[in-house]
Design goal:
The complex is a heterodimer. Chain A is built from 6 helices and 6 strands; from the N terminus they run H-E-H-E-H-E-H-E-H-E-E-H. Chain A is of the alpha/beta class. Chain A has one domain: Glutaredoxin, CATH 3.40.30. Chain A has a 6-stranded mixed sheet with strand order 1-4-3-2-5-6, with helices on one face. In chain A, strand 5 and strand 6 form a beta hairpin. By secondary structure, chain B is mainly beta. The chains are: A alpha/beta, B mainly beta. At the A-B interface, helix 1, helix 3 and helix 5 of A face helix 1 of B.
Chain lengths: 171, 399
């Protein structure tokens, strides 16, 4: 390396630099992974959807009924163009984002906005979402235009979600 | 060519490359997105007052000891010679128990696959913790074992192990029958440092909550667990052994009627006082009863009394733990106050009929293990591993 350095021009170095930057940029863009959900993320997520009726579905890789339920959400998403769905993987111990992404792809939900718990201090993350939520999954939050939250604990009754969507339309 | 420019540009390139590499590394292995890791520390006092601490970190189990009540610890001794895929579930933990002769037993579980099928192992030390035998499976069946719990019968020094075992699931499903949950399995140490035949005490318990074990008498362990009652109701029950080979009937601790198709990852705790009374604390999220609760029974035959709430459900009360130490009964649990996790403590000196006001004995502002209790020589201690503070053994002073 040291013997070659003197012969290198600044232009060649710049080209190499550009190439390296491109490689890294592409490498990172290919990894379509959930956004890390950390302290403060709940406020950010809410702000992003403020004024829009939004459904936040909490699920987990370590929750077997959740994995059975996910494809039904993909079906509902196809059926209802008015469904603004956000997925949040809330495993009690944070899971590798690539595995969260794999599961969403397999369930037909990989094109949606997705987040994944990225902090082992899950008490704090849960408290920001709902102080009374002790971590049970699945769980679905129906958020009105004015920010009012209706919680569906357990596997969601999609009929209830459809009825809620209908009510949002009439407003 | 001026010599100064090239090196600075090269240096810049190197720094940039390193930064990119670090970002990529961080992206894959750091936080966020780290592979889940076990984060537990479990204490046991030896008969001479030595505090033994078993720890699970990333891919290994170690044991260290303290002869000054947790102020300083020895160099850790490895229990796992090779890296293992440890069970990092939120209710799983490494366990350690000391027998009356000062021998140690450590148990832990690994994940065998991506479907969270486990394999439970044990390791022994007969040289006062200087070394541990290579880990061996607790049972020969390879289907799945998790939440193994080990306890030493104080009357005989014999080691009892209980765990949740999935061996009966495939058998039932092969004959077209559904098999929710797992089985409560147990085995006794057979005298030469291995476990004897595995027996199934009960089928269809909840499959991913920790167990609690206490002794009702010589050869008579009592196990508390989250059961699956008809209709997928996951409430708690106790089974007390009539003798070492005969599990007694199932006794329901309370009728919370928490119907849930998922697993709460949140198991109970049990203590049996010298007067024979039973004490159980547990978590539930039933529509009519949410949070942490405590109940007592005068003995092993009568029903449990009315549940007493330990906390408001909007403070995330979690991980209760009970300890009987002479005439004292200690109860701790964890809560979250919006910023910090705190450990609360209550004390009873009349067999759990009346309890002291709640006192806060420790707190932390980041992730933490379950709070545990341990006692020696008439003194009880909170044992708590937290991310910020590390391991702490905190005396429970009766002020």
């Amino acid at each position: 390396m040291s013997s070659r350095t003197p012969s290198m021009t600044i232009a060649r170095l710049s080209a190499l630099l550009a190439l390296l930057l491109t490689v890294f940029a592409v490498g990172r863009a290919e990894a379509v992974e959930p956004q890390p959900f950390a302290r403060g993320s709940w406020a950010e997520l809410q702000a992003r959807h403020a004024g829009q009726p939004t459904v936040v579905h909490l699920w987990g890789l370590t929750c077997a009924p959740c994995l059975t339920e996910l494809p039904h959400w993909a079906d509902l998403q196809r059926e209802r163009s008015d469904l603004r769905l956000v997925l949040l993987a809330a495993d009690p111990v944070p899971q590798p984002p690539v595995r969260v992404e794999e599961m969403l792809s397999r369930s037909g939900l990989d094109k949606l906005e997705s987040w994944s718990f990225a902090d082992r201090f899950n008490e704090r993350l849960r408290y920001e979402i709902d102080p009374a939520w002790s971590g049970e999954l699945p769980r679905t939050l129906l958020i009105d235009r004015d920010g009012t939250v209706t919680t569906l604990p357990g596997v969601a009754d999609l009929g209830e979600v459809r009825a809620w969507l209908d009510r949002q339309r009439t407003h | 060519m001026r010599p100064s420019k090239m090196p600075s540009l090269l240096a810049f390139l190197v720094v940039l490359l390193m930064a990119c590499a670090a970002t990529a590394q961080h992206h894959q292995h750091g936080k966020p997105g780290a592979a889940p890791e076990a984060f537990t520390a479990t204490p046991a006092f030896g008969p001479d007052g030595t505090l033994w601490l078993a720890r699970a970190t990333a891919d290994r189990i170690t044991v260290e000891k303290s002869t000054d009540l947790g102020k300083t610890f020895s160099e850790p001794v490895s229990v796992t010679p090779e890296p293992m895929n440890l069970d990092w579930g939120p209710d799983a933990r490494v366990r350690i128990a000391a027998d009356p002769k000062g021998g140690l037993i450590v148990t832990f579980a690994i994940f065998q696959d991506k479907n969270f099928n486990g394999r439970a192992f044990f390791s022994r030390s007969l040289d006062k913790g200087a070394s541990f035998t290579p880990p061996r499976p607790i049972t020969a069946d390879t289907t799945s074992q998790r939440f193994e719990t080990v306890a030493v019968d104080p009357s005989s020094g014999r080691v009892f192990a209980a765990w949740l075992d999935k061996r009966n699931g495939p058998k039932a499903r092969a004959t077209g029958k559904p098999y929710p949950g797992a089985a409560l399995a147990y085995a006794w140490e057979d005298g030469d440092g291995a476990f004897g035949k595995t027996e199934i005490a009960l089928d269809n318990t909840c499959e991913c909550c920790r167990l609690g074990v206490a002794f009702a008498g010589p050869g008579r362990p009592a196990v508390v667990f989250r059961n699956i009652f008809p209709g997928s109701v996951r409430d708690h029950a106790v089974v007390t052994f009539k003798d070492p080979a005969t599990p007694g009937p199932l006794r329901r601790v309370s009728t919370d009627d928490w119907k849930i198709e998922a697993c709460p990852h949140h198991g109970p705790s049990i203590a049996i006082a010298p007067d024979g009374s039973y004490h159980v604390a547990w978590f539930t999220d039933a529509p009519s009863r949410k949070g942490l609760f405590y109940a007592r029974a005068d003995n092993g035959d009568v029903p449990f009394g009315a549940p007493r709430a330990l906390s408001s459900p909007n403070r995330q009360p979690a991980r209760p733990y009970l300890l009987s130490d002479g005439q004292a009964l200690h109860l701790v649990w964890k809560e979250f106050d919006g910023n910090k996790s705190v450990v609360h403590w209550q004390l009873s000196r009349d067999s759990g009929r009346h309890w002291s006001d709640t006192r806060t004995v420790a707190e932390t502002a980041d992730a933490s293990d379950h709070p545990l209790l341990v006692a020696h020589d008439g003194h009880a201690y909170l044992s708590w591993l937290t991310k910020n503070e590390g391991y702490r053994l905190i005396p429970l002073e009766d002020r």
